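In the design runs reported in the main text, the only information available to the sequence generator was the tokenized backbone. The following block is the verbatim input for one such run; it is reproduced so that readers can re-run the procedure and compare outputs position by position.
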């Protein structure tokens, strides 16, 4: 039995019973549906006699359903819209639907945020924290238990204005699995995220047909089968039209200059004000302007005149040029107060008659207002056209080596020793308020493991600026995604020991891949921030960023190597007396050629030869992939110790892949067909007198052949090497360039670039069963086609094809209430499915007639391979039947040809008085049955070729085969001297 209690408000402590057959209260109808995949619901139909009738308020009224036998709470939920009806007998009834407390999660919306390197538990808690901040206390949840883990916790998850429930489903459940379980207990809502909820009940009495289960039916749903997968990645971004929204460009709309008196002199501010107001002013006019200021206020911005005619009229003259408030309102600009000297200067220039109106002995504007809005944006003086320090009160203080951008002593702990930004430590740059170093639009706010909370802005002049490692909490960031900010604006509060600022003109996601690579992707922030002129800044960028010139003669256009560019690198290294180094200094090959190792030298050599602008330095393990992606093909691999005929640009990699990292590998590149270039040690002419780069050719010592033979015969470990040869097919590479804002194009990244031009993956074994069924699966955060291909293959491996569900009636089940959703119970019904543990995935409880309740059991989501295994099992059963038939046929054939006299004699001895001729007739009858069975077998084999998903038909066919075998077995036993039950004839 079940008891239902209603509450008029969710916060009510005392409710009233509306259904309890024990005390004579009953709803007209009541159905409770508990599901593992959908929100639990309760449907109640009430008549006029019920206390709840007519009182239900959607979203306010709550009900609780209890099991009367044990007092356990089965359901708590809120009311939805009621339905009203009048029966034919005149009785009025109302039907109400109630939804479980997990529906509270649709009442909140997650603001845009990007979170990386967070475990599922950390991510879930952030979502629930945001949910709780938006809803009243009775809708809030406490995350209680999380058992779901993810091997790739560094997954970047983007939440984009979804309801909390949708965000949990899309970014957790659909992505990495698990189930969300909610529970109302002791007046609080709890939420668990469990990898495998429920318990196994394999030792308890099983569900068994004809014993404690009245009926069972199985449904197989193959509707989600995909036999040709199209993996899709993130949407490709395209550039917006040029738009100007911030203070970052130097197009005349953003000006920087003095707005205060300089050492008491208002002249510079007057000149800058004239520039802002599009006024050409002479030195004489500036001098006259200064005289008027001296006469009116003595240079004070705040002085108030309380004695002149304006004061008598009730309008005080105020400030630098003694404007009254009404006059200032008529000519001034709202961003400048009347007590701002610069505001009064530009208000004067806003008078169309300013040249004649501005005079000694009392002045006042008489002309028309020239500009309704201030025509320019003013940025802080001395910031170089929209740049400023994040801690402006400190000034420019020298940085330590480990804080500086680039490769410096003190930064050795970083990969390649390279620092992609500038660190503002609290010791040299005290203060908590973080100011924007450049104007722009906030494009993302997120969390990244190891870096903490961060924000990125994008400026009209093309800079992506990353502020990270300063904000211990998301609440320390005071701006929002989509907000435009100005130079010097406070964007957050530093609550850690330093702020890291990184600047790039590349797409930010692209730039992240090169966080430890000094290839021009990242720009030194120091000269930008601390006041160099625009010309100086452009010169600084030119040293870092490759200049895009006419590329009609480029390797990409001509599809051939610019080998001379690589040879020039070799010559520069010789001139710089390059020293071999395998540590962070190997990156010097990109700048001053002071240091390198074999793989950084070859990496940069090939990048120059194909005009690749992304200066990534590879090692002997990763160089394979780089070459294959940049026009090279594997020409040879093996253990041969003699060089084949070589060609210009050939790359040699020594050491077996997977075992060649560090000193266990080596690489070199061919200058021409007879000469190899390498960076190494041990040869004469090396550093310090020469350089640790060498060429071995026909006349060198050693020669090319001797050089290779020496390495091959003196190799430490297993000798194995690879030869890569340029194919004349350089693919166009993503430059990562980004100008202005970006928008989603709707087109997505595919696997075509790394899958022979095909954007799909076939699944042949599935197509054999189901034909070609196309289906797309999307990974929104992936832009790398190779990574997308890996994801697609992994998805195929775990491909889910169909779901089997079993619906069981409750009439014969003992203790129906004990069956819990998510728990697994032993299910035995050979006519429906094999014996197995099945999960209760749904219960439909009839509150008035519990014996009519039903349960739905579901096995694990069946993979296509499971279906194929069932198919193979059918085939195996048929083969076994054929074998049995063949054996019986052989025995009968032997007896008919007289070759089994001994067998007949043995049978004759056992049969005693049985007439042997009659036995032969029986065998002949058996033979006829065998022939009939063979015919049926042939027909069955044809049927099996077309069997797809109709499991019931297949099982029925098997039962017929099994019955045939049983009939044959019984007849044989009779012939051998007994009945099937073991008794004699």
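Verbatim output:
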């Amino acid at each position: 039995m079940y008891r239902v209690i209603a509450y008029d408000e969710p916060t009510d402590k005392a409710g009233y019973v509306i259904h309890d057959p024990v005390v004579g209260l009953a709803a007209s109808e009541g159905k409770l549906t508990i599901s593992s995949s959908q929100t639990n619901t309760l449907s109640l139909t009430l008549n006029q006699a019920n206390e709840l009738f007519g009182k239900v308020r959607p979203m306010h009224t709550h009900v609780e359903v209890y099991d009367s036998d044990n007092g356990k709470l089965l359901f708590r939920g809120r009311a939805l819209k009621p339905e009203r009806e009048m029966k034919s007998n005149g009785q009025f009834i109302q039907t109400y639907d109630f939804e479980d407390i997990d529906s509270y999660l649709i009442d909140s919306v997650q603001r845009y945020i990007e979170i990386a390197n967070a475990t599922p538990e950390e991510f879930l808690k952030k979502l629930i924290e945001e949910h709780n901040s938006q809803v009243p206390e009775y809708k809030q949840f406490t995350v209680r238990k999380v058992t779901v883990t993810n091997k790739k916790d560094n997954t970047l998850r983007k939440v984009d204005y979804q309801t909390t429930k949708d965000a949990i489903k899309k970014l957790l459940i659909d992505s990495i699995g698990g189930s969300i379980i909610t529970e109302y207990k002791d007046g609080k809502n709890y939420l668990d995220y469990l990898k495998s909820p429920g318990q196994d009940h394999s030792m308890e009495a099983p569900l068994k047909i004809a014993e404690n289960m009245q009926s069972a039916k199985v449904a197989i749903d193959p509707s989600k089968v995909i036999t040709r997968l199209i993996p899709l990645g993130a949407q490709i971004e395209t550039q917006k039209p040029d738009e100007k929204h911030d203070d970052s460009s130097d197009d005349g709309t953003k000006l920087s200059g003095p707005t205060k008196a300089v050492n008491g002199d208002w002249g510079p501010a007057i000149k800058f004000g004239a520039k802002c107001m599009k006024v050409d002013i002479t030195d004489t006019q500036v001098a006259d302007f200064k005289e008027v200021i001296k006469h009116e206020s003595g240079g004070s911005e705040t002085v108030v005149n309380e004695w002149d005619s304006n004061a008598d009229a009730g309008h005080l003259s105020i400030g630098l040029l003694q404007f009254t408030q009404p006059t200032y309102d008529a000519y001034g600009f709202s961003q400048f107060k009347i007590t701002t000297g610069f505001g009064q200067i530009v208000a004067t220039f806003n008078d169309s008659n300013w040249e004649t109106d501005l005079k000694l002995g009392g002045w006042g504007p008489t002309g028309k207002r020239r500009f309704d809005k201030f025509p320019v944006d003013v940025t802080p003086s001395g910031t170089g056209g929209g740049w400023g320090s994040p801690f402006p009160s400190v000034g420019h203080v020298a940085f330590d080596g480990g804080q500086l951008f680039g490769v410096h002593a003190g930064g050795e702990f970083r990969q390649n020793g390279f620092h992609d930004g500038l660190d503002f430590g609290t010791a040299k740059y005290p203060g908590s308020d973080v100011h924007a170093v450049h104007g722009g639009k906030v494009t993302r706010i997120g969390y990244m493991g190891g870096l903490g909370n961060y924000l990125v802005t994008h400026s009209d002049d093309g800079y992506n600026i990353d502020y990270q490692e300063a904000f211990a909490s998301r609440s320390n960031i005071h701006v929002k995604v989509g907000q435009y900010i100005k130079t010097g604006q406070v964007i957050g509060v530093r609550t850690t020991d330093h702020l890291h600022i990184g600047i790039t003109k590349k797409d930010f996601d692209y730039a992240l891949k090169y966080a430890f690579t000094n290839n021009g992707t990242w720009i030194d922030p120091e000269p930008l921030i601390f006041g160099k002129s625009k010309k100086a800044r452009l010169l600084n960028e030119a040293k870092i960023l490759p200049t895009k010139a006419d590329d009609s003669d480029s390797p990409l256009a001509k599809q051939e190597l610019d080998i001379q560019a690589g040879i020039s690198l070799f010559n520069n290294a010789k001139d710089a007396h390059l020293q071999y180094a395998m540590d962070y200094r190997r990156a010097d090959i990109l700048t001053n050629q002071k240091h390198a190792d074999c793989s950084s030298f070859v990496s940069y050599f090939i990048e120059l030869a194909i005009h690749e602008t992304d200066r990534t330095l590879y090692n002997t393990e990763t160089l394979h992939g780089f070459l294959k992606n940049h026009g090279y093909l594997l020409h040879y691999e093996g253990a041969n110790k003699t060089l084949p005929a070589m060609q210009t640009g050939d790359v040699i990699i020594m050491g077996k892949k997977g075992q060649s990292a560090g000193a266990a590998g080596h690489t070199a590149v061919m200058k021409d067909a007879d000469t190899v270039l390498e960076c190494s040690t041990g040869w004469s002419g090396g550093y310090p007198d020469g350089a640790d780069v060498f060429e071995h050719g026909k006349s060198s010592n050693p020669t090319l052949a001797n050089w290779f033979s020496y390495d091959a015969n003196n190799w430490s470990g297993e000798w194995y090497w690879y030869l890569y040869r340029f194919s004349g097919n350089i693919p166009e590479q993503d430059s990562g360039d980004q100008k202005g804002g970006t928008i989603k194009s709707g087109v997505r990244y595919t696997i075509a670039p790394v899958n022979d031009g095909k954007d799909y993956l076939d699944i042949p074994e599935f197509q054999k069963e189901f034909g070609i069924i196309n289906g797309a699966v999307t990974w929104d955060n992936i832009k790398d086609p190779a990574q997308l291909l890996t994801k697609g293959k992994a998805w195929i491996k775990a491909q889910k094809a169909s779901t089997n569900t079993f619906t069981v009636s409750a009439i014969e089940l003992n203790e129906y209430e004990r069956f819990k959703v998510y728990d697994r119970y032993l299910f035995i019904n050979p006519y429906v499915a094999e014996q197995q543990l099945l999960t209760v995935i749904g219960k439909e409880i009839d509150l008035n007639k519990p014996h009519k309740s039903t349960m739905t059991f579901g096995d694990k989501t069946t993979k296509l391979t499971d279906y194929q295994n069932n198919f193979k099992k059918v085939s195996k059963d048929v083969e076994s039947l054929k074998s049995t038939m063949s054996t019986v046929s052989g025995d009968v054939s032997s007896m008919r040809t007289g070759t089994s006299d001994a067998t007949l004699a043995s049978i004759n001895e056992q049969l005693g008085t049985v007439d042997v001729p009659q036995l032969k007739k029986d065998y002949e009858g058996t033979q006829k049955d065998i022939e009939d069975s063979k015919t049926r077998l042939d027909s069955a084999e044809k049927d099996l070729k077309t069997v797809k998903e109709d499991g019931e038909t297949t099982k029925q066919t098997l039962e017929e085969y099994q019955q045939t075998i049983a009939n044959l077995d019984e007849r044989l036993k009779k012939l051998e001297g007994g009945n099937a039950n073991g008794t004699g004839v």
